Amino acid sequence: MSRELKIAPSILAADFAILGKQIKKAEEGGAKYLHLDVMDGRFVPNFTFGAPVFKSLRKVSGMFFDCHLMVERPLDFIAPCKDAGVDSITVHYEALGEKTGEVLQFIKSEGLSAGLSISPDTEADAIAPFIKDADMILIMSVYPGFGGQKFIEGSLDKIARVREMTKEFDTDIEVDGGIGVKNIKKVVDAGANVIVAGSAVFGAEDIKKAVEDLRAAAGEKI
Ligand code: DX5
Ligand code: ZN
């Protein structure tokens, strides 16, 4: 089965002084998702942005807002992000443990798409009980916290394993960290269909072209 490819530029690498303009360019290049990395300085050693920024962006963009919560207390962030207009919320298994299933169900009961993420040191099989509750599985291919890190090659086997585990469900597989034109094809070939790219998009001179180049490198006809 082949699911539709979606490029999800991560605004972590954008120029926040001209954020609205930059995301328009990414959208013109064919990005369907906008990846929003929320960090609380506790779950990860970095701090970013949250609902007030998403509310402003919502007014200028029709993209699917894909919110990635790298926080210790994900439940506190669901209502504000929903009110700001995000379309999907992804939580980390490492932050929730046994509560993962109920939090995913809560996100869905709020009318949002629910994602479940695992960090590089977590085995794919740890989330087996929660696959049925997730619309998307997000495999971190770097340690969460910062953009611009190197892709961890072992993620490819994990993507393939998650693809196998999700085959009876309609689950999207997203991969996040260290992806660019040189390795996007192998990530897609391993089974992923939602591809996060921060520095490869917003670090480029021409943002629209950077998204088009990623789509082409992934094998999409442009
Ligand atoms: C890392 C974030 C990523 C990051 C990706 O914790 O979750 O979304 O912005 O950035 P690049 O594509 O530069 O690795
Ligand atoms: Zn992310």
Structural class: alpha/beta
Strand content: 15-25%
Strands, total number: 8
- The sequence of SSEs as H and E is EHEHEHEHHEEHEHEHH
* Unreliable parts: none
What small molecules are bound in this structure?
D-xylitol-5-phosphate, zinc ion
**Mean pLDDT reading:** 97
The helix tally amounts to 9
Span between termini:
21 Å
Helical content stands at: 25-40%
Give the overall form.
globular
Using the CA coordinates, give the radius of gyration: 16 Å
Biggest sheet descriptor: 8 strands, parallel
How are strands sequenced across the largest beta sheet? 1-8-7-6-5-4-3-2
Summary keywords:
single chain, 222 residues, alpha/beta, eight-stranded parallel β-sheet, 9 helices, 8 strands, 33% helix, globular, binds D-xylitol-5-phosphate, binds zinc ion
Question: What does the model show?
Answer:
The protein is of the alpha/beta class and 222 residues long. The chain has 9 helices and 8 strands. It has helices at residues 19-28, 51-58, 75-83, 93-96, 100-109, 155-165, 184-190, 199-202, 207-217; strands at residues 6-9, 33-39, 64-70, 88-92, 113-118, 136-140, 172-176, 194-197. It has an 8-stranded parallel sheet with strand order 1-8-7-6-5-4-3-2. Helix 1 (19-28) packs parallel to helix 9 (207-217). The two termini are 21 Å apart. 43% of the residues are buried. It binds D-xylitol-5-phosphate and zinc ion.
